[in-house]
Amino acid sequence: MATPHHARRSDTRSRIQDVALKLFAEQGYEKTSLREIAERLDVTKAALYYHFKTKEDLLLSISEDLSAPVDELIAWAQGQPRTLATKQEVLRRYSDALWGATDLFRFFQENQATVRDLAIGESFRERITALSELLKEPDSSMTAQVRSLTALFAMHAGMHATQNVEGDPEEKRAAVLEVALDLLAQADADLVTN
Amino acid sequence: MATPHHARRSDTRSRIQDVALKLFAEQGYEKTSLREIAERLDVTKAALYYHFKTKEDLLLSISEDLSAPVDELIAWAQGQPRTLATKQEVLRRYSDALWGATDLFRFFQENQATVRDLAIGESFRERITALSELLKEPDSSMTAQVRSLTALFAMHAGMHATQNVEGDPEEKRAAVLEVALDLLAQADADLVTN
Amino acid sequence: MATPHHARRSDTRSRIQDVALKLFAEQGYEKTSLREIAERLDVTKAALYYHFKTKEDLLLSISEDLSAPVDELIAWAQGQPRTLATKQEVLRRYSDALWGATDLFRFFQENQATVRDLAIGESFRERITALSELLKEPDSSMTAQVRSLTALFAMHAGMHATQNVEGDPEEKRAAVLEVALDLLAQADADLVTN
Amino acid sequence: MATPHHARRSDTRSRIQDVALKLFAEQGYEKTSLREIAERLDVTKAALYYHFKTKEDLLLSISEDLSAPVDELIAWAQGQPRTLATKQEVLRRYSDALWGATDLFRFFQENQATVRDLAIGESFRERITALSELLKEPDSSMTAQVRSLTALFAMHAGMHATQNVEGDPEEKRAAVLEVALDLLAQADADLVTN
DNA sequence: CATGAATGAGAGTTCATTCAT
DNA sequence: AATGAATGAACTCTCATTCAT
Question: Which keywords appear in this protein's UniProt record, sorted alphabetically (chains A, B, C, D) (predicted)?
Answer without folding.
Answer: DNA-binding
